[in-house]
Amino acid sequence: MGDIRIAVIGMGYVGLTSGVAFAKHGFKSVCTTTTPTKAEKLNRGTPPFYEPGLGELVKDLVNKGTLSGSIDNIKAVKESDITFICVGTPSLPDGSADLSYIVASTKDIAQALKGHKSYHLVVAKSTIPPRTTEDLILPLLEKYSGKKVGLDFGLCMNPEFLRQGQAVHDSLYPDRIVIGEYDKKSGDLLENIYKNFTCPKLHCGIREAELIKYAANSLLALKISFANEFARISEKLKVDVYKVMEGVGYDFRINPKFLDAGCGFGGSCFPKDVNAIKVLANKVGVNTPLLDAILTTNQIQPNHLVELTKKAIGELKGKTVALLGLSFKPNTEDTRGTRALPIIKKLYEEGAKVKVYDPKATENFRPLTNLPLEYCEDWKEALQNADVAVIQSDWEEIRNITPETFKKLLKKPVIVDGRRTYDPTEMESIGVKYYGIGWKNQP
Ligand code: UGA
To answer: In this structure, is the dihedral angle defined by the CA atoms of residues 402, 407, 410 and 416, taken in order, positive or negative?
Structure first.
């Protein structure tokens, strides 16, 4: 098994953590990127982005020689037996998936397969709309390699379900592995790679595998939007939505995960993927009122948080807001789709001045807006003399701020929580005015 060599095209969260997981399981793995500095960094044993736990693993695997980085897709594929396509599929302006990186990397793979003597397995891991593997990747591979699928090379679609911030855990211990196979030979070969992973493995068609990924992300996003709608209902009824969802989540048919109400889901996946499958469904003549509602509800939440802030401290004009957390969730420096951006824009529309702090994401946030934010070195600086603290992502460091500290630093101790970061009763017991999404005491 150790003889099988793996090429991973793409060095983002999916590509690098997949490469790490394969290397950890004994396969010599090379991850490619178009950015030379990223490959150099990886070859020095450092991941090109922050992800908890990844640094130690990368260092170890690079030192052992099982993991390396490269900017040469063709060489990487030529020197391997299996290639995973893990490039990004960002949104186009109409919400559909931009497949240009898929096209470019597939052409490189085909080019490499041209002179290949032995059978090679190509696996699409990127999130791609159903039919992309069969209608785009397959024909490109055959056209530019002159080889035949099923004969000279195999083809699979193997979606990835890892969460940023927990990417190492999720790629080493996935809860299932979906193997969408062109034919049995391809599927069996891929299953062999995963033979030491103990989770359930589902063999299915390629298009099913593609759609499983969109369906899974849409259902998770739906759970969040559902909790958010109930949060707004709960606030009016003076009910704690977290208690409501706890009671709902104990039902084994539902489960308690992803029912945390807040200022909405961000990230590079949920907003993009729900949009992409909605656009695709509409294109093929299917109405999607449910998918539409997931996105509409998500757009309501940031404005709603600002409305709560307004109610909590009165007109925002001339007020200073300390906004804590710029990343789309804790434990990542990623700011794609972060709810911090619409919240901050709305706060400025209302005439507030905003001081911001994030443990890791400040540099990634800066290019997203020209608004005259005050970027702070630490949360103390952000809270000092602000009229209110608004919490956007609940990093542990932010979670650990005590009620006493809020009292000491803020002009008046008022918190508007977009993530239920704190225990409201603890805050209220020492005189901090605590408001937030889905909390029963409303301003
Ligand atoms: C998500 C999925 O959870 C992964 O399974 C999937 O592989 C990944 O997308 C992907 O398609 O690549 P990720 O975007 O990294 O992972 O982060 P999540 O932990 O899912 O959080 C997404 C957003 O939802 C965050 O803004 C988070 O704050 C929010 N969220 C999450 C809630 O508002 N409430 C919840 O209960 C859970």
So the answer is: positive
Q: Are 276 and 95 in contact (CB under 8 A)?
A: yes
Ligand 1 centroid from CA 161, angstroms = 10
CA–CA distance, 379 with 36 (Å, rounded to integer): 35
**Token digits for 212?**
């499983």
Q: Tokens in use for 439? A: 């909390």
From residue 398, give the alpha-carbon distance in Å to each of 126, 276, 333, 390: 33, 33, 15, 11
Per DSSP, 87 falls in state: -
Evaluate the CA torsion angle 364, 365, 367, 368 in order and state its sign: positive
The H or E element spanning position 109 is helix 100-114
CB 70 within 8 A of CB 32: yes
Alpha-carbon torsion (138, 144, 149, 154), positive or negative: negative
Task: Give the distance (Å) from ligand 1 centre to CA of residue 101.
Answer: 23
Q: At 249, is the secondary structure helix, strand, or coil? A: helix
Atom of ligand 1 nearest to the CA of 339: 26
Report the nearest atom of ligand 1 relative to the CA of 164. Answer: 15
Q: What is the pLDDT of residue 116?
A: 84
Mutate to test the pocket of ligand 1, among 270, 328, 334, 336 (most ligand atoms within 8 A of CB): 270
- Pick from 51, 265, 338, 339 the residue to mutate for probing ligand 1's pocket: most ligand atoms within 8 Å of its CB: 265
Say how many Å lie between the CA of residue 236 and the centre of ligand 1. Answer: 27
Question: How buried is residue 46: exposed, middle or buried, by Cβ count under 10 Å (0-12/13-18/19+)?
Answer: middle
Give the residue, by CA position, lying nearest to ligand 1 atom 34: 260
3 state DSSP class of 335: coil
For β-strands 153-157 and 177-181, DSSP reports them as antiparallel
Helices (H), 264-411: 270-283, 289-313, 340-349, 362-365, 379-383, 396-399, 403-409
Residue 269 is a catalytic residue? yes
Q: What is the CA radius of gyration of the chain?
A: 24
pTM for the complete prediction? 0.95
The residue contributing the CA closest to ligand 1 atom 12 is 269
Q: What is the mean pLDDT of each run of 10 residues along the chain (443 residues)?
A: 87 96 96 97 96 96 97 97 97 92 98 93 97 98 98 98 94 96 98 95 98 98 98 97 98 97 96 95 97 98 98 97 98 96 98 98 98 98 98 97 97 97 95 96 86
Q: Which atom of ligand 1 is nearest to the CA of 266?
A: 26
Tokens encoding 53? 């736990």
